[in-house]
Amino acid sequence: MIISLFLLLQFFSNNEKxxxxxxxxxxxxxxxxxxxxxxxxxxxxxxxxxxxxxxxTGEFPLIIHTVRASxxxxxxxxxxxxxxxxxxxxxxxxxxxxxxxxxxxxINVIANTRPNPITLKIYGDVKKE
Length: 129
Fold this sequence. Notes:
Elements: H1 2-13, E1 30-32, E2 36-43, E3 48-56, E4 64-69, E5 74-77, E6 88-95, E7 101-111, E8 118-127
Parallel strand pairs: 2-8
Antiparallel strand pairs: 1-3, 3-6, 4-7, 5-6, 7-8
């Protein structure tokens, strides 16, 4: 049990590469319109959404296994179905500011792509009102 937990933590803590079931032969490519979004000015404790648009530019169906945010104040929402080659989709990120000031958050997309993970970023400034 402890070894399984350790291996799982190692899998998600390694920021360099994730090997996904199916390996190299089923990896595909993904192209984002932008990997960084300036969310501008936000109001403290008022959630705001950022949308990352992407296209499967590879030869195989895109499978997004999970999307992980750098903190609990950032909620990612992604397609649970495969995205066929040439088709587009979106990853929505809802940020609920819990601190006033400048913020910078990372979102890791873990999919059957190379490179893997793909890091998306949001940033902006939070004001009291």
